[in-house]
Amino acid sequence: MPRRERNKFVKRGQILELKIEDYAFGGKGIARIRSEKGEFVVFVPNTLPGQTVKAQVKKSSKKYAECKLMDVLIPSEDEVEVPYQDIPGAPYIQLPIELQHKYKKESTLSLFQRIGKVENIEDVFDEFVSSPNLFHYRNKMEYGFSAIGYDRENKTDIDEFTLGFKRRGTWWMGDNLEKDSGLFDKQVEDSIRVIRTYCEDTGLQPWHGPRREGFFRYFVVRKSYKTNELLFNLVTTSDGLSSFDLNAFSTLLKDIFEERFAGLLHTINDETGDRTIATSGSITLVSGKDKIVEELLGLNFEISMKSFFQTNPKSAEKLYSKVIDYALEKREAIDNTVVMDLFCGTGTIGQILASRSENTKIIGVDIVASAIEDAKKNAKRNHIEGLEFYAADVGKFLYQHPEYKNKIRTIILDPARAGIVPKTLSKIIALNADRIVYVSCNPATQARDTVELVNNGYQLKKISLVDQFPHTAHIETVVLFEKG
Length: 484
Ligand SMILES: C[S@@+](CC[C@H](N)C(=O)[O-])C[C@H]1O[C@@H](n2cnc3c(N)ncnc32)[C@H](O)[C@@H]1O
Hints:
Layout: H1 3-6, E1 15-24, E2 28-35, E3 38-45, E4 52-60, E5 64-74, H2 97-114, H3 121-124, E6 125-129, E7 140-151, E8 156-166, E9 174-176, H4 186-201, E10 216-223, E11 230-236, H5 246-257, E12 261-268, E13 282-288, E14 291-296, E15 299-304, H6 313-328, E16 338-342, H7 348-355, E17 361-366, H8 369-381, E18 387-391, H9 394-400, E19 408-413, H10 422-430, E20 435-440, H11 443-455, E21 458-466, E22 476-483
Parallel strand pairs: 3-5, 6-21, 11-12, 16-17, 16-19, 17-18, 19-20
Antiparallel strand pairs: 1-2, 1-4, 2-3, 4-5, 7-8, 7-10, 8-9, 10-11, 12-13, 14-15, 20-22, 21-22
Residues 308, 343-346, 348-349, 365-368, 371, 393-394, 414-416, 441 line the site of S-adenosylmethionine.
């Protein structure tokens, strides 16, 4: 054994049985191994206090180890029965929502204290906003086909035509979805079994991960809460396509979902990597239409299979309302001014803000060109004027447009999970805005950026937490920063 490994309490790859005692930010359960040498801390994501779990060591140092959850052996006493199939995407579904909120609130605020150095975090805490729908809140789901399934009774893998989600902690094994998971659409999930049987009866093979071969790969569904319509995308390889009848598959979906069926798309994905994105590859329309319309705060947004759209639209309305409330608190910093909506995606926040303010010009910037195209189209559809959208890296855009320095009073920030790179944050700070409303889907990077903003004269005035994804460890934050 290498010396580096010898000094460690547990070894990489080792399988441990652990009792979870605490909860850390991001859904990491904390277990402690006590011995004559002292206390050794083990983190296991997607677990909660009271559970006894089986976990594999992924990273180990002298003081602590990071593990991957393999199985929950004994549930926590806090957990309750739910009528849904358990899936890796909802590790906390059996925990009452009030407890989920408590863990999320406490761990997020302590993160701002620890990393963000905000000592008065309890004083500036504004509101914990719950998701309006606690179940069936998602508007998109990706189901995977697999030739290797999971035998729940014997807890082992089996050769089986599978359609559902990956088995927790594995990349090669699927787990059949037999009924509603409680996260997406009940009718769709209760029908997955029928769709699976239809595909299996064609004689074509599901994807075999280790062998990197097979025909059926993914079945993706998008839903509109406005119209209740469903848009489908079947992802296959090209191998065997000539013997598969896409129109007959579309008829099956129309028979099941009737007027809810909006359209079927087909994607050919011949990538063989384990981490291929479900929908990469060429996409064609088989029948119906290729877009559905969703409504957010009275505005309409057209969504195609590939475009980014908030996954929990009802909760997104709450999130956006909070952003708009913070922004409009000081109307003089909004009306008759130029507002920057940086990392704007499809421009939703800017459009809502423009529609609720007087003579405000919005500059939206996002690096994804197709999102900017959608933003422009959506603004036109909603008859909102005064918006300019640019497809660019935020840092580069600000470098190329020094004319905005000292001209912007309010900035909206909504970066991706990785947060804002330091150089770009400096350029944002150099704009010298009075107010910044910073939305984040990763409070850990936002807490880091808070230090920089505070060092440059901003104060954290308010923070709200929005629970966009009940039953997961995710939490979104809306933070209001003001100068001086
Ligand atoms: C959380 S999303 C923003 C969503 C948007 N505000 C909305 O509500 O629809 C983060 C966005 O940051 C964009 N992005 C990531 N890195 C970027 C960069 N360096 N410059 C500009 N945009 C970037 C992504 O394309 C993505 O649309």
